[in-house]
Amino acid sequence: MIENLLMGFKISLSFQNIIYCFIGCTLGTIIGVLPGLGPSATIAMLLTLTYKLDLTSAIIMLAGIYYGASYGGTITSVLINIPGEASTVVTCIDGYQMALKGRAGKALGIAAFGSFIAGTFGTVGLSLLAPPLSEFALMFGPAEYSALMMLGLTLVIYLGSGSPTKAMVMGFLGLAVATIGMDPATAVERFTFGSQSLMEGVNIAVLAMGLFGIGEILYMAESGEARASRDAIKYSSKLRELLPDQYDWKMSIKPIGRGSILGFFLGMLPGGGAVISSFASYAMEKKFSKHPEQFGKGAIEGVAGPESANNSAVSGAFIPLLTLGIPSNVVMALLVGAFMLHGVTPGPFILKEHPNVFWGVITSMYVGNVILLILNVPLIRFFVKIIEIPMALLSPLIVLICVIGAYSLNNNAVDILIMVIFGVVGYLMRKFRYEPAPFMLGFVLGEMLEKSVRQALIISQGSPLIFFTHPISMVLMVAMLFMILSPIFTTFRKRRRLTTVLEQVRKAASEDD
Amino acid sequence: MVNEKDFSSGLFLFLLGLFLAFLSIRYSIWSKFGPDEGFFPLAVAMIIIGLSLIIIVKSFFIAKPQEKGKTSDDKKRKIITTLRVSIYVILMLLYGFMLEKIGFLITSAVLIFPILKYVEKQSWKITLLVGFGSIITSYILFVHFLGVPLPRGFIGIW
Questions:
Q1: Each residue's pLDDT tens digit, A225-257
Q2: pTM of this prediction?
Q3: Same domain as B21, residue B49
Q4: How far is CA A276 from CA A84, A225, A259, A472, B111, in A?
Q5: Range of B29's domain?
């Protein structure tokens, strides 16, 4: 394995490729910071830049673009509460709260370092485990996917810091919004009310910008206190003071490790594993934490784990791509395009026929990860200055960028109106103490969940027992039930303990008398 | 004492769930092959109805957060803040309706200048500087750098 990796690094670490990667990272970060333009849109826009390059140079540049855009999304999640893509929604929960407490630099720093460590783990994992794990990925059918998505949905209980019931209802509301548009199986228009713009459903970027970005702007416009405390934040210009300190590392290292492993295995599942990896990591960290009440209020673990899971999932997602030729998400599908443009078809024979391509691609992604760290960490001291711009000036700028960003997705003004509507929804959610993150998770999982549930029920001729008769599905369903019942048992156990303590105190008091 | 926010939000969600269920049953729920397009939205609607009922019931048992008595100053402040939020929403909606007809430049000016001057209470100097600066920067970034064709409107200028 080491010899193969060294061969790969020899290909990817030429001076020319490093420059291409650097350009990719820079462009990716600049565009990724713009609301509405996540990694997939950024890669799609800049794919043409790579046409004239050889395959390894093209992939290394695309890797730089991907990581840059991904980190750009993390920057907006932390600094202005607008997620760059579905998987950075979770970063908004605690990352933005950290920024409101003057710890944006630590959030951005731990996201960058955590992503790097996860990327390292992912590269090693990919090298060692690609062929056997591809067999595991193939074992997932509709019943297994349904169970996985249902398990993912139960994570909403852990996403919010408030009432689990409210979090669940938001998750299901997200599922409901995901049904808007053409039914994937029968092509029947659902809930479009005659609007052609809604035939393809609600765009996830429009939804995210509305719920998180515009919703937050409207809430801040109303709440003088929240604004004043945000405007009072000032940052040091010394990088050392901005970056995570020893205590932050102590709190983050285990979440980074757990997130890396979880993200890697979830990322290789074609269809949606990578998306739920950050949500799953967040729920896991909240469950393991000794202070779960801190989550949602700026817990660094809530950034470290999910960002690592997200990055590690990219390496995991390469497994079905390189071994089976199956792209597991949009980014991988775009990379397939890049491969085919250069006459290489990813699949089972790539390791035998093009080993230099296989190892060159793996090491290219890692080099992109390293360049991102080198490029963006020193820039953190400038990124955090965004927080120091008064909300009175920042709010209108964010609104302008969001409306243009929403329009630019499909050159359709209706997307602006949908974004504003969801902005009002996001504002009302905050006023009535509901949280937008569970809604987003439900929306993201909606299409995949519906498709796999319907397929599973068709296979089983309507019998729901299919979810319990397939071994992997059964394990996932049991895990789901455990996650739903676990908070109830915990509350029950706490009440019993409290009752016991009160009885002992009463007994002691009566003995004294 | 009932928690009014939880009660009203629960009731809204309950009615929304009913509306969603009503719309869903207009589609085919089940065919000979299995679940059809109405199945999943109907199932989701039923769960939303159930969860919203739990929220409504809990609102009678959960303590309402302590609120100070409202003075006339508080009421005035509430009106002003509601107005600020409303202006943001109205201007963004106007932007959506006007963008393709009037064009990027004028619509963006109509959006950003009133917000800076009348909602955020900035001076004319800051309003014009930040306003023009942001519009020009957005134009360069989206039109020239990213190649996004922003509408020119009937006037024919950006």
A1: 667 767 766 766 677 767 888 889 999 999 999
A2: 0.82
A3: yes
A4: 15, 34, 12, 17, 37
A5: 4-59
